[in-house]
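Researcher: Here's the sequence for the chain we discussed earlier.
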Amino acid sequence: MVNDLISQIKNAYLAKKMYIELPYTKLSEDTCSVLAKRGFIENFKVFKNTNESWRSLRLNLKYDGGGNPALEDIQAFSRPGLKKYIKSKNITLVKGGRGMFIVSTSCGVMSGEEAKKKGLGGEFLCVVY
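Model: Thanks. This is the structure I predict for it:
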């Protein structure tokens, strides 16, 4: 499900959209929370329309004054058929500190920097820069 989120974010930035709406999952919400903390998206909101029985996620994308996207690229690593894991000692800086890994650990989804500080490894979801 995170791969869908990543693809839609990437495509929305390429199409210069201001926001996107996606189906809600807890993993998607946690991933968006990490992206929002680091400034790669403006903000996000979980909502439920009155005539629908499911929740959705709305992401407001972030651009600088010149219309350039806040993120240059986002790449998925783990996928349903092939999970990839990373140890805390193997987490490094991305693009000289301008980017980050997003890792799903036993303590929740967090940036690679946070996981390394806590000494946690986990499923390597994606890299953002």
